[in-house]
Amino acid sequence: MAVSYLRGLFKKGDPVPGGHSALLTLGLCFLGLAFYVGDLLSFPYSSYTNDVASHIEYLRYAATHLSLPAPYSCWECYQPPLYYIISAIAYDAGQYAGLAEPLNAVRCVSMGFYAVFLYFAVRLLRENMRAAFAYYTALALLVFWPSGIFKASSITNDIPLYAAQMASFYYLSCWYKQMKQRSLVYCLWWSAIAFCFKSSGIVVYGVIAGVVFLSWLQQRFAWRELCSAPVIRAVILSSLLASLSFGRMYYYRIAEHRSEPVLVSNIQTLDAALRVSNELKYFVTFDWHSYMASPFYNTRDNATGRQYLWNTMLKSALFGEYGWKAPRLALLLAQAELAMLCYLLSSWLFIAWRTRLRGWVCLPFWVFVFFQVGALAAYRAFYPFSCSYDYRYIYTVTPVAALLYGKAIEWQLQHAPAIARMGMGIGMFFVVLTMVFCVAQW
C-alpha cells in the first residue's frame, strides 16, 4: 500500500512540468513527517485538541459496547459515526498489542488520515503549478503550516474530514480541467465520505454545485453530459450516505421528541460567556491593535480580538484557540501570515485586472475558498459564539491558499521577478519561523 501511495505521487514517466524534483518533494514531506511525529512524542493526547475528552468517550463506547451511543449522551456523540468506528478498531488493536496508552494507536490513525490529506493536496499543487520555485514555496507552506503540525496526530474527526474534502476537491479540479466524467464520479464519492466523517462536510456539496454551475455558464459542457449512468449512480450513492448520517439524528429526534439542530446538536448547551456580538463591523473590519497585541486569541477575552471574524480566523489558522510558548516568535509568525495574505490578495487583484479574467483556470480554487470562508462566516452569524469561527472548521482551505499563493508568484516571475522573489522570501521566512516555533514547544 505504501509503495502504491508513493508511486501515485511520484510515478515515473509522469514528470511535473517545470522540472520539479520528485525527490525534493518527497524530502520535504518526510521532513514534515518528522515534525508531526515530534509533536506526537512531545505532547499527550489531551493537549491542544478541541473536545478531546468527548471524542474519546465516543470511541471508547463504540469499542466497549460494539454499538453507537445515543446522539445526546455526550458532547460529540451527535457526530456521524464513521471516524469513531475506525478509531474504536484502532483502540482495540492498541489494547491487544499491549500499548501502555492504546489511544496512541488512534493518534497514529489520525496521522494516516493526515497523510491522505497531504497526498491529494500535493497532487493538487504538482498538477497545477509549473514554476519550480513557486511550487516549492507553496509545498513548504502546506507541509509546515503550524496548526497542521499540531493537529496531524489529534484525536478528532476533523482530520479524516480534511482528507475526504481534499480528495473530493482534487477530483473536482481534475474534472474542471479535463471534463472527464470519471473525475466527477470520484469527486461525488469522496464528498459523501466527507459527510460520513463530520456533518460540516456538507459544505463540499456547495463547492461542487458552484463549480459545475459556473462551468456550465462558461459553456464548457452540456447538461446531458452529466446524465450518464456512472454520474447518476454516484449522485444516488452520495445522497444515500448523506441520508444515513442525517437519518440517525432524525430517528432520535422523532423517537425522543427532541428539537436540537441536526447539524450542530450541541450548540444550545454552549457557555453564555462564549457569546459574541453579531454587529456588522465584526464581520467586515479587521482590528489591527488586538492582532498586534497578542498572536493568540482567547475565546473569553475581547482584548484578543475574539469578536472579529478576520482576527479570529487568522489567529486560529496558526495556533488554534490556545496559548503557546515563545509568544514573540508567535507574533512574528502572525505578522508574516498577514504579509502573505496581503501579497496574495494584492497580486490576484492585479492579475485579474491585467488579464481581464481570461483563461480563468483558477476558478475552482477561488470558488472553494469562497464557499469555505462564507460557510464559516454564516456559521458565526447563525451561532454567535467565539468558538464558532475557528479556522479548524475550514482547514482544507490551507492547500488551496498555498496553491493560489504559488500561482501568484508564478505569474509575477513572468512579469515582475523582483515581486516574485519578495513573495518567495516572505513564504520561506514563514516556513523557517514555523520550524523554530515548533522546536521551541518541545
Tag the structure with descriptive keywords.
single chain; 442 residues; mainly alpha; 18 helices; 0% strand; globular; disordered N terminus
Spatial shape: globular
Number of domains: 1
| Average pLDDT for all residues | 87
Largest sheet: none
Portion of residues within helices: 55-70%
Strand content: under 5%
Structural class: mainly alpha
What is the C-alpha radius of gyration, as a whole number of Å?
Answer: 22 Å
Please tally the helical runs, counting DSSP H or I stretches of 4 or more residues: 18
Instruction: List SSEs in N-to-C order.
Output: HHHHHHHHHHHHHHHHHH
N-to-C CA distance: 32 Å
Which residues form runs of ≥5 with pLDDT under 50?
A: 1-6, 8-18
* Tally of strands: 0
Q: What does this protein structure show overall?
A:
The chain is mainly alpha-helical and 442 residues long. It has one domain (20-45, 52-266, 280-441). The protein is 67% helix and 0% strand. The protein has 18 helices and no strands. α5 packs parallel to α17 (397-415) and α15 (327-355) crosses α17. Mean pLDDT is 87; it is low at 1-6 and 8-18.
What does the secondary structure layout of this molecule look like, with pairings?
Layout: H1 2-10, H2 22-42, H3 52-65, H4 82-96, H5 103-126, H6 132-143, H7 146-151, H8 158-178, H9 181-197, H10 203-217, H11 229-255, H12 281-284, H13 288-293, H14 309-319, H15 327-355, H16 363-382, H17 397-415, H18 417-441
Helix pairs in contact: 2-6, 3-4, 4-5, 5-6, 5-8, 5-17, 6-17, 6-18, 8-9, 8-10, 9-11, 10-16, 15-17, 15-18, 16-17, 17-18
